[in-house]
Amino acid sequence: MKVIQISDPHLMTPGGLLYGSNPLFRSQACLADIGGNHADADLVVISGDLTNDGERSAYAALRESLSGFGPPCRLMLGNHDDRALFLEMFPQATTERGFVQSVVDSSEGRLILLDTLDSGHVEGKLCAARLDWLDERLQEGRDRPVFLFMHHPPFRIHIPELDRVMLADADALHEVLLRHGNVRHIFAGHVHRLIAGSWRGIPVSTLRSTNHQTALDLSQSWSLGHESPAYAVILIDADGVIVHFHDFPVPPAP
Ligand SMILES: [Fe+2]
């Protein structure tokens, strides 16, 4: 199974710049590269912060960008998004119990896409309703490997500014995962960095934004990174999971 992860496009009203880059232009370059090289993807997941300010015009631009895009695509929410407006703009989005979360089953296992947005807060939350839903989905998939996608990582990355705004109820999530023991990888966004490691024994990775990055600065302050935007090509088979991080080309801005 080939899954593409894109994260944190932070779209603005078309023409708007964010940290000196045009997020719409960059996300379109990303989609074009995927369309040219991975049109065979089984699924494309955009793991949250679809927009920077939750603006209608930014969601409209995303909808327009995806209108001619080939592979099946699932959109997730991040702390910069507006759930109600997103659902108005993407009424066909899969929801469960009012949250933008869903399950994708394949012969290689079960993907579970979680909604960690806690409206009005930068940090993420799953809350009892979402944890119960996850518990049930993990129970259903108990005999198969499960792969989680979530905007907020439930683990620290040792950059204090971002660790303060990770998933707030990480211990509660861990309790649910422990009950089932079938989660094989957690793919997160939010931190705008390429990171691989493990959290309490579960392999994890995070991804750069398609627009702007976090610098490798472990001090108390957040600094802007200047790494290239990237997406991830995730290959899942009976042997396990391989993640290729790809710095897609961004043509000079018009
Ligand atoms: Fe973000």
**Looking at the structure, what is the overall shape?**
globular
Order of adjacent strands in the largest pleated sheet:
4-5-6-7-9-8
From the helix content, strand content and strand pairing, which structural class follows? alpha/beta
Bound molecules: fe (ii) ion
Strand content: 15-25%
Separation of the first and last Cα atoms: 36 Å
Supply the CATH superfamily name. Metallo-dependent phosphatases
Helix content: 10-25%
Q: What is the number of domains?
A: 1
Low-confidence stretches: none
Write down the CATH topology: Purple Acid Phosphatase, chain A, domain 2
- Tell me the CATH architecture: 4-Layer Sandwich
Number of helices: 6
**What is the CA-based Rg, rounded?**
17 Å
Number of strands: 13
- Overall mean pLDDT stands at 97
The profile of the biggest β sheet is: 6 strands, mixed
Q: According to CATH, what is the class?
A: Alpha Beta
Helix and strand succession? EHEHEHEEHEHHEEEEEEE
Characterization of the model:
The radius of gyration is 17 Å and the shape is globular. It has helices at residues 23-37, 56-66, 83-89, 127-140, 160-163, 170-180, and strands at residues 2-6, 43-47, 73-76, 102-106, 109-113, 146-150, 183-188, 195-199, 202-206, 213-214, 224-225, 231-237, 240-246. Helix 4 runs parallel beside helix 6 (170-180). The protein is built from six helices and 13 strands. The strands form three sheets. The chain has a six-stranded mixed beta sheet with strand order 4-5-6-7-9-8, with helices on one face. The chain has one domain (2-247): Purple Acid Phosphatase, chain A, domain 2 (4-Layer Sandwich). It is of the alpha/beta class and 254 residues long. Residues 8, 10, 49, 78, 80, 190, 192, 209 line the site of fe (ii) ion.
